[in-house]
Specification:
The complex is a heterotrimer of chains A (273), B (367) and C (303). By secondary structure, chain A is an all-alpha fold. Chain A has 13 helices and no strands. Classes of the chains: A mainly alpha (273), B alpha+beta (367), C mainly alpha (303).
């Protein structure tokens, strides 16, 4: 056997070993979702069993899955939509009409993300109470929006910067005013970038836990809160926990898998080529 | 009439002045080329004419009208960019027609003009493709087509051929020349390649560090360069420039002497240079011949056989290599000791200590 | 084709346009984003600052201005050094684990092998799992000393199972966090590796470099930049780890796994001590800004 083939086999084995180890917890949880409670805690752990859907059926009873899921969707969607509406003009202006202060402003925006959420938990909490927004979807949307805004502006900025300046100049020679440039050229050319930014924002907001757990409860709790409530040991219900968890993370897993390349681009602000 | 005039044009970036007091007049229907090394300001100048860069001081006239404050699309110009700058998400037809669409030209008229431009550049069967599906040469033609559709007074080209491979470049040169004749338009062309400049231009503007070194026809620049810079920039292979000292002057010329004490006669005006002054002698490679009693002696260092001609690099001492152009079948070999002379019809060039050309001596009337 | 005359419009009409074009009014475009972030940053900050000087406990009547009492109480709290230490420990341990494994996995996945595409998707998976879900899965399904998978495995080998959250809570938390974030690092480093110029690697081979030399002298330096970005991003998130702790150890046993965010959370929402929590909040903000200062300076050059 040639050395290169031997290497290939070694790499294949190692590569798959790593993949299976990393994915194992998710896989194991997915299995448990279809087991009965007894099967779930059986020892030795069962790889083969009779699958059942009872957990998914009962899931709704324990934590009102539907309501929480709906909240997750609403918060993710609205906070992302508003964030992009606010971020796009700013990103456009910084990418194509930069001033001396543009770099500073960008870094300042990023630095607001460094502010730890706990630091402002108290006043935010009190402001929400005062504004009547505690435990409401609107309140959570606003907070999630603010938390993700810096990242979104950064990503849009880096996508806009990729549009070659010469194309916009050519359009100026052709007689395009700034608004026409935006509509006819920029948006079609940057559409994929805007889409993957939106995707990342949705993922981040879906997984957001800190604010969810602390400022929402019955009315506007999202799935993150629902899962967190499972941590109180009230008896063993791991199968149901697994079912609820699987149902909570499945949409995002699919999203993430579909868009991994764009996510990397955005996450590293294009600094990684 | 499509003329362009620059009067005392300057360009400043912040506190740095990159161009000062430029004067230039582009004639109707001429093909003028801005040429010079990187950073000389040729692209900046073009962009100022286009309206993409601001003119700090001075005036720009198109057809006699001052256009400093007129937006780019209202100046009657069209520009072909180095990277073509095609709109990637639009078809070729949409690319060509974009400007007309912005100007709200009715559809029928727009399509007719697009088709006409496509016909000139043989793009008819590519109209439905997107730029990503075209080759480099095709994309370039679309970029030119986009300019043609606007029927501008003046075409601006910013190094349009530099992204093409060598063979395609030669082909496009010919096409551009044909286009110029067919459209009878004024064309301002920027390049760093002196071969492009020489082959395509009616007149050439040589720029260096934001200053115009010389303006003239290709042959003028070749035969009567105004400075050592122009002499060295125009002409391939590069002219031989040798430091010399003036030894004697006479009504028909001066005698100069090379460091090796070899004397050469140059028909330059003697009153421009005192005896003993330092100067630079310019000898084109084709101005030299191998001759057994030639004044310059040396050893052949490198021989390049090009087939149609032979380039010989002769080491004449003092770490100086002279380039000599000989016939294609010349039997000279590396290591041979040769003697060089100035050819019977050649005209040596002389430049003073500042590098400016010394004017020719007034020739006595022919008997 | 004849060129028709095309006269420019009279100068007076157009004069302002160029100036306008140059200085496109960017303020209306930037205002919403800048405004919102400004409010988001300043208002809570000012309020937190104000509350930190108040003796305000939601359970008892407000005491009004108490000066630096809250800060003194905070800084003299015997548990504080432990909390700060825990916070830093989590950050450092998680950083080293994720980056160490991330580099190895990235190098492994850089070269093609059979079924690499699918394998890569599996490796990436943990990043998209909600932190609460991750923590619960690890705590109950894997690490549980009686019913967990690890317990069964060690019993099969005749070893007593480890009670992770009682005996090694910090390590358990770091393991969970690392599992969540290794995919992130792997993805970013892998992308960067794909842009590594193969010519360089081949030149090194010609110079006689073996796999280890190539790794140290070519691969690692090339990864320097993305690693810096990763360190910055991960630090932002690791300093504020919260969900994983809440759902598993609740900061315990004792204070063993309490970090600064959790500490403040327990003060504010469990002890209802608004003043004290605010002082803690300011403390956390100061630390975060110190870290931010260093990172933003070094990263700013890269961007």
């Amino acid at each position: 056997m040639r050395p290169s083939t031997r290497w290939l086999i070694v790499r294949t084995i190692l590569g798959w070993l790593v993949a299976l180890v990393m994915a194992f917890p998710v896989f194991w949880m997915a299995l448990a979702a279809f087991k009965t409670e007894l099967d779930a805690i059986a020892s030795p752990p069962l790889l083969f069993f009779t699958p059942t859907l009872e957990n998914f059926a009962e899931m709704n009873e324990r934590v009102d899955y539907i309501a929480h899921a709906w909240n997750s969707i609403a918060v993710a969607f609205f906070s992302t939509a508003v964030a992009i509406l606010v971020a796009a003009p700013a990103a456009y202006s910084m990418a194509f009409h930069p001033t001396r202060r543009t770099k500073d402003i960008l870094l300042w925006m990023l630095s607001t993300k460094f502010m730890p959420a706990v630091g402002v938990l108290v006043p935010i909490y009190l402001i929400l109470i005062w504004a009547g927004l505690l435990d409401t979807r609107t309140g959570l949307i606003i907070i999630t929006l603010m938390a993700n805004l810096p990242l979104i502006i950064w990503m849009l900025y880096s996508y806009f910067k990729e549009v070659p300046g010469e194309i916009l100049e050519a359009s100026r020679m052709d007689g395009a005013k700034p608004l026409q440039q935006l509509v006819h050229l920029l948006i079609p050319m940057a559409a994929p970038g805007v889409a993957s930014t939106a995707l990342l924002a949705i993922i981040l907001s879906w997984n957001e836990s800190f604010w969810c757990i602390n400022v929402t409860a019955v009315n506007s709790g999202t799935l993150a809160l629902a899962i967190a409530s499972f941590s109180n040991p009230e008896g063993f219900f791991w199968a149901k926990l697994s079912a609820a968890s699987l149902a909570s993370i499945a949409p995002i897993m699919v999203f993430g898998w579909l868009t991994q390349r764009q996510l990397v681009r955005g996450l590293t602000f294009g600094a990684v080529k | 009439m499509s003329t362009v005039q620059l009067k005392a044009v300057s360009k400043q970036y912040g506190a740095v002045e990159v161009m000062k007091g430029l004067d230039l007049s582009v004639r109707d229907r001429e093909f003028i080329v801005f040429v010079g090394p990187s950073g000389c300001g040729k692209s900046t100048l073009l962009r100022m004419i286009a309206g993409l860069e601001e003119i700090t001081a001075g005036d720009l006239f198109i057809d006699g009208t001052r256009v400093n404050d007129v937006p780019p699309d209202a100046r009657g110009l069209a520009m072909v960019f180095q990277s073509y700058a095609l709109y990637p998400h639009m078809t070729v037809a949409s690319n060509l027609g974009f400007a007309l669409r912005l100007a709200r030209v009715p559809r029928a008229e727009r399509e007719a003009k697009v088709r006409a431009a496509a016909k000139i550049l043989q793009l008819e069967n590519l109209l439905d493709r997107k730029p990503g599906q075209l080759s480099g040469g095709q994309r370039q033609r679309v970029a030119i087509g986009r300019a043609i559709v606007r029927q501008p007074k003046v075409f601006l080209f910013d190094e349009p051929l530099s992204n093409l491979d060598a063979a395609l470049r030669v082909q496009m040169r010919i096409e551009l020349a044909r286009l110029h004749r067919e459209l009878s338009a004024t064309m301002i062309y920027v390049t760093h390649d002196q071969v492009e400049a020489m082959t395509m231009a009616d007149r050439i503007v040589v720029l260096r560090a934001g200053v115009i070194e010389q303006v003239g026809t290709p042959l003028e620049l070749y035969n009567r360069p105004a400075s050592t810079f122009v002499a060295g920039f125009i002409g391939s292979p590069k002219i031989n420039l040798l430091p010399v000292t003036v030894t004697a002057g006479s009504p028909i010329g001066v005698k100069v002497s090379l460091p090796s004490n070899v004397a050469i006669a140059v028909p330059a005006a003697a009153d421009a240079l005192p005896v003993g002054a330092s100067a630079t002698l310019g000898l084109r490679p084709e101005a030299l011949v191998v001759s057994s009693d030639g004044p310059i002696g040396g050893e052949v260092s490198v021989v390049e056989h090009l087939g149609g001609e032979t380039l010989v690099y002769v080491d004449i001492g003092g770490a100086t290599l002279m380039t000599v152009k000989l016939a294609g079948n010349d039997p000279v070999r590396v290591g041979e000791k040769v003697r060089l002379a100035v050819g019977p019809t050649a005209v040596p060039l002389l430049f003073n200590a500042e590098g400016r050309a010394v004017r020719a001596a007034i020739q006595p009337a022919m008997q | 084709m004849k060129i028709e005359a095309h006269s420019p419009p009279p100068p007076g009409v157009q004069r302002g346009w160029l100036k306008q074009q140059r200085r496109v009014r960017t303020w209306p475009l930037m205002a919403p984003a800048v405004g919102l972030l400004l409010v988001w940053m300043i208002v809570p900050l000012v309020l937190t600052l104000w509350y930190s000087f108040q003796g305000y406990n939601l359970l008892s009547p407000p005491q009004g201005f108490v000066g630096l009492d809250n800060y003194v109480y905070l800084l003299t709290d015997p548990g504080l050094p432990q909390v700060v230490w825990n916070t830093l420990a989590i950050v450092v341990l998680a950083l080293s684990t994720t980056i160490g494994f991330g580099i190895l996995f990235a190098v492994l996945y850089d070269q093609p092998f059979l079924g690499r595409g699918v394998a890569r998707l599996l490796v990436i998976a943990p990043f998209f799992v909600m932190p609460t879900v991750s923590a619960l899965v690890w705590k109950n399904l894997l690490m549980h000393p009686v019913y967990g998978l690890f317990a069964w495995v060690s019993r099969s080998f005749g070893i007593a199972p480890i009670d992770w959250f009682a005996d090694h809570p910090m390590m358990a938390i770091v393991i969970i966090i690392s599992w969540e974030w290794i995919p992130f690092v792997t993805l970013i480093l892998l992308t960067s590796l794909q842009s590594l110029d193969r010519d360089q690697v081949e030149a090194a081979r010609m110079d006689g470099a073996g796999p280890f030399a190539t790794f140290f002298f070519i691969t690692l330096p090339h990864l320097g930049r993305p690693i810096a970005v990763v360190v910055m991003l991960e630090t932002i998130f690791f300093l504020s780890v919260y969900a994983e702790i809440l759902v598993t150890t609740v900061g315990g046993p004792g204070l063993e796994t309490t970090n600064i965010p959790f500490y403040i959370y327990s003060r504010a929402l469990l002890a209802y001590d608004v003043g004290g929590a605010s002082a803690g909040g300011i403390f956390a903000i100061v630390i975060a800004n110190i870290v931010a200062f260093f990172f933003v300076r070094s990263i700013a050059r890269q961007l």
